[in-house]
Amino acid sequence: MRVGDANGRVIPHCGGVKEIGSGIPVTYVPARNTIFLSYALAWAEVLGSEDMFLGVNAIDYSGYPDCRREYIAAFERMANLATKAGVEGRSKLTIHTPLIHLTKAQIIQRGAALGVDFALTWSCYDPTPDGRPCRSCDSCVLREKGFAEAGMPDPASR
Q1: Could you list the residue range(s) of the whole structural domain that residue 147 is in?
Q2: Same domain, 93 and 121
Q3: Count of domains for the chain
């Protein structure tokens, strides 16, 4: 049995990439990347860092508004207005998004080249009772597609 969220919505499951809906999905977490970036911004200023890195992706993704380049650029502008270092002109913060324009296959290939153990990763929104990926939510389907296009088996699907 699939359990719904606080609003009674159930994680969508599909039979393939073509069945993934358009628009912002029910798996959207309000302000998720804003929260992550806010904490990172505070820590970056404490450290005196001018660079932050975020692994968002705008290609082959489920439509989250905070994974778009426009959002990242707006947050970067705000960060430079909202920090002591920015106001005093001592530094200019840059948010780097090295994965934003890569396909899932390209991200997987890059991870493999860097030695990522993909058996330690998974992307499921609705794991089975024993903690395994469901293999049919949007995230699992997009991950499977990425591994297939990268020509690699997905260790999480075994």
Answers
A1: 103-158
A2: no
A3: 2
- Residues present in the chain in total: 158
Indicate whether 67 and 33 sit together in one domain.
yes
77/128 same-domain check: no
34 in Cβ contact with 78 (< 8 Å): no
Among the candidates 64, 80, 101, a domain finishes at: 101
Report residue 144: phi and psi, to 5°.
-60, -45
What pTM was estimated for this model as a whole?
Answer: 0.80
Each residue of 34-86: pLDDT tens digit?
Answer: 999 999 999 999 999 999 999 998 775 567 889 889 999 999 999 999 999 89
